[in-house]
Design goal:
By secondary structure, this protein is an alpha/beta fold. 39% of the residues lie in helices and 15% in strands. The chain binds nicotinamide-adenine-dinucleotide.
Length: 435
């Protein structure tokens, strides 16, 4: 039985708090694809395929032909930033895309100007900007955001909206009392509680407005009991945290492979150099701490050392990020992996990933927006674990360990799509040779 999925016709507005490198690379990329000057490489919704039925049936359509997704020709963008630069200027500053391509897209990109941000330097100490909202309380700031959202929807004639946090990584904040219930959170918003950072105010505003919310950074944002219950109550799908790109993408590809061969790992040292604004923000130890927690959890969850003590109990895992301006957005992620095999004999693997951070992240933002819209049209609400595929630190129900293995994540995503369309799930577990 297929789920009833509401129509994907009409305009989808993608709202982005934070119009920096990732957001502008996404927006420019979508316009470039729509103009036929580029292809949506790296995007699961645009280029991914899905097998339907037995292997012998040879039926593997594009995902977007299998299930009704918003057409990227019908997408409009909006966003907030503490800097006044329009999307064209911000993309030039980010230095990710070449000037020639940006010039071709200049009129469209220039037309997107950031709305005034909800920003407090306390939570991102390395940034300072003037395009910032003012109000006596955090609740009033949330009300202003809610008004922005409604105005954007009317002005752009949108049928539906989604919000994806592409703002900077905030300082490390642990879940506390004010995060536990909607009532406490709302009281905290009225009393300017310090444990409510800007990203949480955006998440609250989106969910209150009935808009799906994804968090691309590792800060808590919507990952608190109060916002999870508000999302359930308002029929809003949410997910997070921290886009899975670069080094962690490699880790979640390599680690499951080593584990499946019962190879031991003695140590995994990961270091990164990057020189973009994200790198500058992560140069602050409090913001780095948020990122570190997100990056460190991955190996534990994949390798399950408590279940395989001989192989992983002594694993030494270290993650470093260093700000190094000459590289700009072109990050270098270097891994040294000390593994051991039969009779304990040691071996080493070195990975040197010369990647482009925003080139890897941009398609994930598009996929999250498009899949969250699908989730809402399919009447799904609360945490969307099937979207773990896109995250370093997937948001899960309390007490449930996240799945980090990218291949298990892919299977969960694809089976959710099959379930929504009422076709048989594929588990690769059947005994029939056609499975
Ligand atoms: N690029 C990747 O591969 C990747 C992977 C995982 C996570 N992320 C996260 O995605 C986010 C965006 O990355 P980026 O490279 O575009 O960074 P960036 O610094 O280029 O852009 C972030 C933008 O957010 C703005 N901002 C900060 N706080 C804001 C607020 N409260 N309201 C509105 N705007 C705000 C900043 O002014 C900046 O323009 C970062 O948190 C980063 O850690 C990126």
């Amino acid at each position: 039985m297929s789920t009833t999925i509401k129509s994907a016709e009409g305009k989808l507005g993608i709202l982005l708090p934070g119009l920096g490198a990732v957001a502008t690379t996404l927006i420019a990329g979508v316009y470039a694809v729509n103009k036929g000057i580029s292809k949506p490489i790296g995007s699961t919704t645009q280029m991914g395929t899905i097998r339907v039925g037995k292997r012998t049936e040879n039926n593997t359509p594009l995902i977007k032909d299998f299930i009704p997704l918003a057409d990227i020709k019908n997408v409009v963008f909006g966003g907030w930033d503490l800097f006044e630069d329009n999307v064209y200027q911000s993309a030039v500053n980010a230095g990710v895309l070449d000037r020639y391509t940006l010039e071709l897209l200049k009129p469209e990109l220039e037309a997107i100007k950031p709305m005034k941000a909800v920003f407090d330097k306390k939570y991102v100490t390395k940034l300072d900007g003037s395009n910032v909202k003012k109000a006596a309380t955090k609740m009033e700031l949330a009300d202003q955001l809610r008004q922005d959202i409604r105005d954007f929807k009317t002005k752009n004639n949108c049928d539906r909206l989604v919000m994806v946090w592409t703002g900077s990584t905030e300082i490390y904040i642990q879940e506390s009392e004010v995060h536990q219930t909607i009532e406490k959170l709302e009281e905290g918003l009225r009393n300017n509680d310090d444990n409510i950072p800007s990203s949480m105010i955006y998440a609250y505003a989106a969910i209150k407005e009935g808009i799906p919310y994804a968090n691309g950074a590792p800060n808590l944002s919507a990952d608190i009991p109060a916002l999870v219950s508000l999302a359930k109550q308002n029929n809003v799908p949410i997910c997070g945290k921290d886009f899975k790109t670069g080094q962690t993408l490699m880790k979640t590809i390599v680690a499951p492979g080593l584990k499946t061969r019962s190879l031991g790992i003695a140590g995994w040292f990961s270091t990164n150099i990057l020189g973009n604004r994200d790198g500058a923000v992560l140069d602050d130890p409090a913001s780095f701490k948020t990122k570190e927690v997100s990056k460190l959890s991955v190996l534990e969850d994949i390798l399950e050392p408590e279940k395989h003590p001989d192989l992983y109990k002594d694993l030494y895992h270290k993650v470093r990020i260093d700000y190094y301006p000459p590289r700009g957005d072109n990050k270098e992620g270097w891994d040294n992996i000390d593994i051991f095999g039969w009779m304990g004999y040691p071996m080493q693997i070195k990975i040197d990933f010369l990647c482009r951070d925003s080139i890897l992240a941009a398609p994930l933002v598009l996929d999250l927006a498009i899949f969250l819209d699908l989730a809402q049209r399919s009447n799904m609400s609360g945490i969307q674990e099937w979207l773990s595929f896109f995250f370093k630190s997937p948001q899960t129900k309390k007490g449930v360990h996240p799945i980090h293995d990218i291949f298990k994540q892919e299977m969960k995503l694809q089976n959710t799509l099959r379930h929504l369309q009422g076709v048989e799930l594929i588990t690769f577990l059947g005994l029939d040779y056609e499975d």
